[in-house]
Amino acid sequence: MRLDVLLGCELGLSRSQVVRLLGDGRVSVEGRVVTSRDKGFTLQPGQRVTVGPFTRPEDQQPIPQAQAPLQILAEGSGYVVVHKLPGVAVHPLEPNETGTLLNALVARYPAMLNVGEGGLRCGVVHRLDIETSGVMLFATTQARWEALREAFSSHQTHKLYHAIVIGHPEKQPQTLRMNLRVTQHSPARVKVVDGRDPGGRPCDLTYKMLESLGNAALVEVQLGTGFLHQVRVMLAHVGLPLAGDPHYQPEGFIDPTGSPRVMLHAQRIVIGDIDVSVPSPEDFLDVLARLRGAV
Questions:
Q1: Does the annotation mark 283 as catalytic?
Q2: Cα 281 to chain centroid, rounded
Q3: Does 125 share its domain with 248?
Q4: Quick check: 242 and 251 in contact, CB under 8 A?
Q5: Model confidence at 295, in pLDDT bands (50, 70, 90)?
Q6: In terms of residue numbers, what domain contains 231?
């Protein structure tokens, strides 16, 4: 058995958590300390694996940052909705990491520390890529977290995005259905796969053009499912890569928009009695203005 598989099974850790454990030098095989480079090491029967003291993920806590900026859009019974700015992470990956939305939130809502998955992802209901801006929803009570997660799992949510794409979308709304699979975890990469691929997950979205901008366009995207990098991968697959997204633009592609980041903004979220929208941030509007001036 591979070392990382054994550690994941025996300790109940994810792949990324195992890699961090190895990177911290907490694991030895037959007395020899191993590192993250040894994660694929094949263990032989009878070999002794020793794990030193470590804090389990569910017992870790984000550092409260009471002075960190936080734009609250709405709050109610068991939930809070905030505006995630581009470049800000949703939650920390390490106990000593700061500057994320969750660091600011737990300082203001300390009761959410044990909500949901707990640990460094307490209260997190859904996620946005670090470069994506827009509406972010968190739960502040366990009952609300369970209800919101069920709504996401059963696709009883309405998630609307605005994106600037490079290319010429159809004038009529288009629905895309594809199977996506994560092919790399750090940094994350996703690709479209054949429906017979056992690792693929069926995903769908509908998009429509709001404004033509010469060689680019402003589009509105409504998600049916939610998957890592879904909007970016699926639109790029049909020849409409997002502005500022070199990871999914074709090899050798020259982005004519000069976008400072991936131009994707979570405009609105609707779940039951929660209905919150937020305007696009300045950098998104600046790219739009520049493209409008060039048309």
A1: no
A2: 19
A3: no
A4: no
A5: low
A6: 158-294
Looking at the structure of the chain, the number of domains it has is 3
| Separation CA 142–CA 194 (nearest Å) | 38
Q: Is 162 helix (H, G, I), strand (E, B) or coil?
A: strand
**Of 24, 38, 129, 275, catalytic:** 129
Note every long-range contact of 197-204, with CB atoms under 8 Å and residues 24 or more positions apart, other chains counting. 201/225, 201/227, 202/177, 202/178, 203/177, 203/178, 203/179, 203/227, 203/230, 203/234, 204/175, 204/176, 204/177, 204/178
Q: Which two tokens stand for residue 203?
A: 């995903």
Sign of the alpha-carbon torsion through 187, 193, 195, 198: negative
CB count within 10 Å of CB 287 equals 23
Q: Tell me whether residue 261 is exposed, middle or buried, using C-beta atoms within 10 angstroms of its C-beta: 0 to 12, 13 to 18, 19 or more.
A: buried
Beta strands in the chain (DSSP E): 27-29, 32-33, 49-51, 72-76, 79-84, 133-139, 158-166, 174-185, 188-193, 201-213, 216-223, 264-271, 274-277
Q: What is the pLDDT of residues 237-265, one digit of tens each?
A: 999 999 999 999 988 888 999 999 999 99
> Are 191 and 165 members of one domain?
yes
Domain final position from 23, 39, 55: 55
Q: Which residue has the higher pLDDT, 199 or 71?
A: 71
From the list 119, 118, 88, the residue with the least C-alpha distance to 104 is 88
Residue 197 pLDDT > 90: no
How does the average pLDDT of the chain come out, rounded?
A: 92
pLDDT value of position 79: 97
- Tens of pLDDT, residue by residue over 57-74, are 777 889 999 999 999 999
